[in-house]
Write a structure and sequence with these properties.
Blueprint: E1 9-19, H1 24-33, E2 37-48, E3 58-60, H2 65-75, E4 79-84, H3 90-103, E5 104-112, E6 117-118, E7 121-122, H4 128-139, E8 143-144, H5 148-155, H6 165-178, E9 182-186, E10 194-201, E11 204-211, H7 220-233, H8 238-256, H9 272-279
Parallel strand pairs: 1-2, 1-4, 4-5, 5-8, 8-9
Antiparallel strand pairs: 2-3, 6-7, 9-10, 10-11
Helix pairs in contact: 1-7, 2-3, 3-4, 4-6, 5-6, 7-8
């Protein structure tokens, strides 16, 4: 029988896109499938995600975040880990810093996915001030999980599509310099046909290579960060969790390939049993 020490509670803070398989609609089921009690703070509610859908609704929930925190503090609610995803404003970043300070147990992990950019550009609505705010959150992170675009914005390095390992190491060193204890840099490929995950801290580096599938899918960053966070909460090392999350994300993409009607996300649910097997 599992003891209380084996059963962890994680908090994830990000938006709810009601349709579109991203953010909380991905994080909650994946973390739960990992066997982790999952609490949430929704930063906003959207009818769909914003990539490809038109006329979506949006409700900002920033003003609800302090009241939720106040209630939790009164109740003595604490967490073994916290995972942040897409945040819509500098104010929400500051709220996350306060939430982490007041609700994380001693030794708890703060995992930051600085979801704000891709393919060399910031997402619509974000600017240099938001990058500065996200840098403050990354500075407190036990593990930062950016893609290469986000890492470049955070560190001020030039974004490159063609690079060598020295360039990647420099970016990781700069993220550690900001304050992150460990970096898991996603989407890093040194050979044609392959991509991977680059794990880096002051003690060393680790690279996990996997096949690069043609085309892209919405929400795969959320799938990866959620599976990674769940594996960590299940006691896997950062390196093990990075590899498990990569393999699971590839499975999700393969499970969706060929279905043109499912353009808005990946079919991650049918392959959740495979993630559970990977976790042992």
């Amino acid at each position: 029988m599992k003891t209380n020490n084996d059963y962890k509670r994680i908090l994830t803070v990000q938006d709810i896109s009601c349709v579109g398989q991203c953010s909380l609609t991905v994080a909650l089921p994946i973390l739960s499938a990992c066997g982790v009690e999952t609490a949430v703070i929704p930063s906003a509610v959207l009818s769909t995600h914003t990539a490809g859908f038109k006329g979506f609704t949006f409700r900002d929930l920033t003003c609800d975040m302090p009241a939720i925190l106040e209630h939790w503090v009164r109740e003595g609610i604490r967490f073994d880990g916290m995972y942040t995803g897409y945040l819509g404003s500098e104010t929400q970043v500051d709220h996350c810093l306060e939430i982490a300070e007041k609700t994380l147990k001693d030794g708890a992990l703060l995992i930051v996915d600085p979801a704000m950019a891709d393919n060399g550009v910031l997402y619509k609505g974000f600017d240099a001030d938001f990058v500065k705010a996200m840098r403050r959150l990354v500075a407190k992170a036990d593990i930062a999980v950016p893609n290469i675009t986000e890492a470049c914005f955070l560190t001020g390095n030039e974004y490159k599509e063609n690079y060598d390992e020295a360039y990647i190491e420099k970016i990781c060193e700069d993220l550690i310099g900001i304050g992150a204890k460990k970096v898991v840099l996603t989407g890093i490929g040194f050979e044609e046909g392959f991509t991977g995950v680059y794990v880096y801290d002051k003690n060393g580096k680790y690279y996990y290579r996997h096949e690069k599938l043609p085309g892209g899918c919405h929400g795969t960053g959320d799938v990866y960060a959620s599976a990674f966070s769940g594996a960590l909460m299940r006691g896997k090392s950062v390196e093990e969790a990075a590899a498990i999350a990569a393999d699971y994300t590839v499975l999700c993409i393969k499970n969706t390939a060929g279905d043109s009607s499912h353009w808005y996300g990946v079919k991650f649910e049918p392959v959740l049993p495979e993630l559970i097997k990977m976790l042992g």
